[in-house]
Write a structure and sequence with these properties.
Blueprint lengths: L14 E7 L2 E8 L7 E7 L9 E7 L9 E8 L12 E7 L5 E7 L5 E6 L4
Antiparallel strand pairs: 1-2, 1-4, 3-6, 4-5, 6-7, 7-8
Length: 124
C-alpha cells in the first residue's frame, strides 16, 4: 500500500514578545504553537513611553501569556527610533521563523524608514 507522506516542520511552542498591559507585563503571542514553518508575522507596536528612541525587546516561547510561565528565547536592543509621542509612532515588528528553527526579527520605523534586523536561536 503506497501513500504520499508529507512531513512539515512546525513551531513546538508559541512565540511572542513581552509587552506592558494594564495589569503589568504579559507575553503577546505572535506565532501560534504548531504553526507551519517557515512563517512570518508582522504587527505594529509602540514604545511604553513618549519620545522613546530605543527599547529592549524580549522574545519568549511558551503556551501562556504569563511571562514567568514562558521561556526567554532572547532579547535585542532596538535603537534609532523617531522621537514621537507613543501613539504616533509607526513601528513594525516582524517575527519570521525559518526551517532551521531560527527566529528572525525585523523592526522598521515607518516614520524614518530606519530598519534593524536580528536573529535569535530558540531553546529546545
Amino acid at each position: 500500500l503506497a501513500r504520499d507522506v508529507r512531513i512539515e516542520d512546525v513551531v513546538s511552542h508559541a512565540i511572542g514578545v513581552k509587552v506592558k498591559g494594564k495589569e503589568g507585563f504579559k507575553v503577546f503571542e505572535f506565532i501560534r504553537k504548531n504553526a507551519k514553518t517557515p512563517l512570518g508575522v508582522s504587527n505594529f507596536v509602540t514604545t511604553e513611553r513618549d519620545r522613546a528612541t530605543e527599547f529592549d525587546l524580549e522574545i519568549y516561547q511558551g503556551n501562556s501569556t504569563v511571562v514567568e510561565e514562558c521561556a526567554l528565547v532572547g532579547a535585542v536592543h532596538i535603537s534609532g527610533l523617531t522621537s514621537l509621542p507613543r501613539a504616533k509612532q509607526r513601528i513594525e515588528l516582524r517575527l519570521h521563523t525559518d526551517r532551521d528553527g531560527l527566529i528572525h526579527i525585523t523592526i522598521t520605523d515607518h516614520t524614518s524608514g530606519h530598519r534593524q534586523e536580528h536573529t535569535v536561536q530558540p531553546r529546545s
